[in-house]
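User: Thanks for the earlier help. One more: TadE-like protein. Can you show the sequence and predicted structure together?

Assistant: Of course, both are below.
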Amino acid sequence: MQWLRLRRDRRGIALVEFALIFPILLTLCLTGAEITNFIITKMRVSQLALQLADNAARMGAGSPLAAKIITETDINDLFVGANLQSGGLDLRTNGRAILSDLEQDPANAGRFRIVWQRCYGQKVARASSYGTAGTNNMTGIGPAGRQATALPNSATMFVEVYYVYPPLVSARLAPATEITEIASMAVRERRDLSGINNVQAAPVSTC
């Protein structure tokens, strides 16, 4: 008799339904939060790569009548500024930035070469995906269909940023564990393309 009354009792049905659906609801909420955080982080890394390329295209010192000279100190300051701009992302610890100087290849008409390359960040050492210093006879730099080139007697600053995504909840809920962004900017003013000056014996951010 008591068993029949218990079978007909519906007073706890809502609580049971909630208990069954709660894990699914919680997973959906946490996944949404993780994806949102990933998108925001990806956008910040993209803006960081663009700012780094823009600043690299402007760096250098010299009079208005002379070509600007760039130094290792300029490049080091560029990277330090990018790390400060990254804020909580901490580019130095969680990422790796690669700056490449693309110029026309004098040995191959209509082609390009990477004259020099500098790197920053403590992420596991990673070479550029598009070529290293000395690579020549290139059609451009960057992924197919989005390659950057350089004008005669000028250069293009090409930046790659590889960033290890720190998950908000769990890496399994994020679309990827690493964010990759690229950006390029043509050098704004005349620049001395003979090489990087290092009269101050500043540390070289080698790759």
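User: Great, one quick takeaway?

Assistant: The mean pLDDT is 86.
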